[in-house]
Hints:
The protein is an all-alpha fold and about 290 residues long. It is about 85% helix and about 0% strand. Helix 2 crosses helix 3 (about 35-55), helix 4 (about 60-80) runs antiparallel to helix 5 (about 85-130) and helix 7 runs antiparallel to helix 8 (about 165-175). The model is unreliable at about 1-5 (pLDDT under 50).
Amino acid sequence: xxxxxxxxxxxxxxxxxxxxxxxxxxxxxxxxxxxxxxxxxxxxxxxxxxxxxxxxxxxxxxxxxxxxxxxxxxxxxxxxxxxxxxxxxxxxxxxxxxxxxxxxxxxxxxxxxxxxxxxxxxxxxxxxxxxxxxxxxxxxxxxxxxxxxxxxxxxxxxxxxxxxxxxxxxxxxxxxxxxxxxxxxxxxxxxxxxxxxxxxxxxxxxxxxxxxxxxxxxxxxxxxxxxxxxxxxxxxxxxxxxxxxxxxxxxxxxxxxxxxxxxxxxxxxxxxxxxxxxxxxxxxxxxx
Length: 288
């Protein structure tokens, strides 16, 4: 028995038991309504659920979180049993990657909605010239646009059919998307409708303004992309130079790490490098 506990298999079994015990303790904490971990887990489920609903996924946040937790626990147990560090790294990646991937998809969908907004406003303006009812005009544009904006419009039409006022249904889109650009355009739609202005003309003007903003953003993006590439090159060059000098003569940079003056020089150089990187990032972060 002493030989078993002192062997490699004994260590593997001990590590596996520790992982299983920690997983069981976390499961008990999550299932207990009064435990602090239950509240944190519920917040995480709600966070995933909000992104899943926005993306119109079939799975909900609770099921995604449970599958993620099961996968993390499985890789931890397998890594402890097999003694493979790669499996433990995969467990950490699964724990981190799931919310990051969902957040990335949310950002991509929001950008796609912003790109489709000006075209939909023009369609709505033309529809309002044929029918004065804004609810019917919005409904007529659902089948004329591509996802993801067609999904949001279809949901808005269904909310209106179930009794939600048109203005509130439009505001619900703003709350779901959370884009200042879309919120501003939809706010213009509501205000123009309530004040009784020439709504088709206002929508056409708004669509033109959005197209001009998109054009300017493209110009700025093209002008700053070259600068960003130069910043990356300049930021990497010092490390390449240090590596090159170290490979040519290992003692060349020794004075920088062997006396107090060398430490001061390295500290000043690193500080200036960090300041230059942050400053260049601020300069290139142009917002229209």
